[in-house]
Structure formats: structure tokens, C-alpha cells
Design brief:
alpha/beta, seven-stranded mixed sheet, 6 helices, globular
């Protein structure tokens, strides 16, 4: 295990630091990738709910609150990590804007019922999941694609070698070293054909 310090980059919590112990299975989102993520999302962050799925340290979800998200839902199965996220949320004065769900992500998504308003969902699975549980992960993504409200943004943090071609739909892929950000916006469905255009 390695002791690591991560810092919130921008917003009202700018400069706040989280200290975490990183093990082989964890994959904290590098600061460069976080900066790119929030730059890409831009105006889609304020006044929306942010889902930090496979939360880990929770720094991405806390940064979303820092940048104006109405609240962040953290989904993480490790009890120690969820306790640390809760502790930092209280320390930073944003506990009322956090909802922590201690659950296996693959079970959580089967029960998840979103509202009608668009949301942002960030997936950063551990290293083993992208290799050993690829089929489960692909089903997770497909379930989210089906259930997300229109205009929602789905983002996956992946690595070199991830089977991007196995994902359904069109994705905007950005590369940052060995990291990839895969972004998809759920567009409105096409309008029904008018009677005059039907042969």
C-alpha cells in the first residue's frame, strides 16, 4: 500500500487535500485527467446531480460539488473508503450535499431508478474490473445508457487496451497518457416520421 495525497483543483473547495492509501486494485484519477474531465463537462456540472461510481477516494465527486453540482452520489463497496469519504465531506462542510451508497456497483445499478432531470455519471472501475469482469462492466454501462435521462452525460475513465469497440453507441474518446476519457451524451430520440414521409 502506498500513501498518496490528492488535491481538489478548483471551485469553492479548491486546495483542500485528501490523504489515502492506494493499493494495487485502486486507480485514483490523476489530477490532469480530473482537470480535463471538468473542463469537458463545463456548464453541465452546476445545478446537476453527479454520480461518482466506483468512488474510491471520492475526490472526483467532491470536486464536482466544489464546482457547483447540487449533490454527489458516491457508490462504493469498500466500507473503509465510504467512511473516509463521509469524514472528508463533513470536514469540508459539504455533508448535506453528499449521499453515500455502500454497495457493489453491479448490484446497485440493477436497483437504480433515476429521476427525469439530466445527471452526470462518472465511472472509474478498478484495474481488475476492466480485465476480469469486462462482461459485467459492459452490462453496467448498457444499463446506465438505457436508464439515464435525456441530456445526461456518461463518462468512463479507462486505460490503454480497453475494448472501446465493445461499447454501444458513439463515444468521444480523449487520451491523457495511458488514461482514456470516454464521453457520451444521451441525445433526444429522433422525432417520429410524419405521415407524408411514410411510403
Amino acid at each position: 500500500m502506498e500513501r498518496s495525497e490528492v488535491r481538489i483543483v478548483a471551485g469553492r473547495l479548491r486546495g483542500r487535500k485528501l490523504v489515502c492509501l492506494v493499493h494495487e486494485g485502486m486507480r485514483p484519477t490523476p489530477q490532469m485527467v480530473r482537470e480535463a474531465l471538468f473542463s469537458i463537462l463545463g456548464n453541465a456540472i452546476p445545478d446537476r446531480v453527479f454520480y461518482d461510481v466506483f468512488s474510491g477516494t471520492g475526490v472526483v465527486g467532491l470536486e464536482a460539488i466544489s464546482r457547483g453540482a447540487t449533490r454527489t452520489v458516491f457508490v462504493e463497496r469498500d466500507g473503509k473508503l465510504t467512511s473516509e469519504i463521509q469524514a472528508y465531506a463533513q470536514k469540508f462542510g459539504v455533508a448535506e450535499q453528499t449521499q453515500i451508497v455502500r454497495s457493489d456497483v453491479y448490484r446497485w445499478v440493477d436497483r437504480w431508478i433515476p429521476g427525469d432531470a439530466p445527471v452526470n455519471v462518472f465511472l472509474s472501475p478498478p484495474f481488475p474490473d476492466l480485465a476480469e469482469r469486462l462482461e459485467d462492466f459492459l452490462r453496467l454501462v448498457e444499463t446506465l445508457q438505457q436508464r439515464l435521462p435525456l441530456e445526461s452525460v456518461l463518462v468512463i475513465q479507462a486505460e490503454d487496451g480497453f475494448a472501446i469497440d465493445r461499447l454501444k453507441g458513439e463515444w468521444d474518446c480523449r487520451k491523457y497518457g495511458r488514461n482514456r476519457l470516454l464521453i457520451q451524451v444521451k441525445d433526444s430520440p429522433p422525432p417520429p416520421a410524419s405521415p407524408s414521409s411514410v411510403s
